[in-house]
Design brief:
This protein has helices spanning 3-23, 39-57, 62-65, 78-94, 112-134, 142-162, 177-184, and strands at residues 102-105, 108-111. With 189 residues, it is mainly α. The chain has one domain (3-139): Up-down Bundle (Four Helix Bundle (Hemerythrin (Met), subunit A)), CATH 1.20.120.450. Residues 11-131 form the Mycothiol-dependent maleylpyruvate isomerase metal-binding domain.
């Protein structure tokens, strides 16, 4: 996948999550499929990722960033906070040469294209989580699902060994791509 394709994948996945943020409409305490997380917790998690994105794509290390994005970042207007953080993250990924760099993550140095793909996957799967929590449309972008399904096949064992996803959910043999992707991430659709 080209750099422009990865940028588009990220843009569309972030937009999918943003659509679900707008659908929360006061149901910030709604339980999500993520154990122990409410809609508020889930959106805060993604805002945290969005806040980390500009410095990481700018070359900062985890140590340099420190704990400045810890805690509750949503404040009094969670939707606006999401929009601002998402816009800053997208600008960082779209910056000239951003995806040609190396990012310094807690689990080592990785190509920025790989990290942008990881972020896109997190946004897309969590878009489904948030939709499930608040009763919004659970349909995910089929092109993004197709690409992330192929990408995640080799990544699933690594994610599982790191403990960042649950057990693979059982699915019928004729399950479609979205159901298969969600099952790989431990979701029961």
């Amino acid at each position: 996948m080209s750099v422009s394709d990865i940028t588009e994948l990220y843009r569309r996945s972030s937009a999918a999550f943003g659509e679900r943020v707008h659908a929360v409409e006061g149901r910030w305490d709604a339980a999500t499929p993520c154990p122990g997380w409410s809609a508020h917790d889930l959106v805060n998690h993604l805002v945290n990722e969005e806040r980390w994105t500009p410095p990481l794509f700018g070359g900062a290390t985890i140590e340099e960033i420190g704990d400045r994005f810890d805690g509750d970042l949503l404040g009094a207007d969670p939707v606006r906070t999401w929009e601002e953080a998402a816009a800053a993250a997208l600008a960082a990924i779209e910056a000239d040469g951003a995806l040609d760099r190396t990012v310094h993550l807690s689990f080592g140095d990785h190509p920025a294209t790989e990290y942008a793909t990881q972020l896109a996957a997190d946004h897309l799967v969590h878009a489904w989580d948030l939709a499930r929590a608040v009763g919004a449309d659970e349909t995910l972008d089929p092109d993004a699902v197709k690409y992330l399904l192929a990408w995640f096949e080799s990544m699933e064992p690594i994610y599982r060994s790191m403990g960042v996803i649950g057990e693979r959910a059982p699915i019928p043999a004729d399950a479609g791509p979205q159901t298969r992707l969600l099952a790989m991430f431990g979701r029961r659709s």
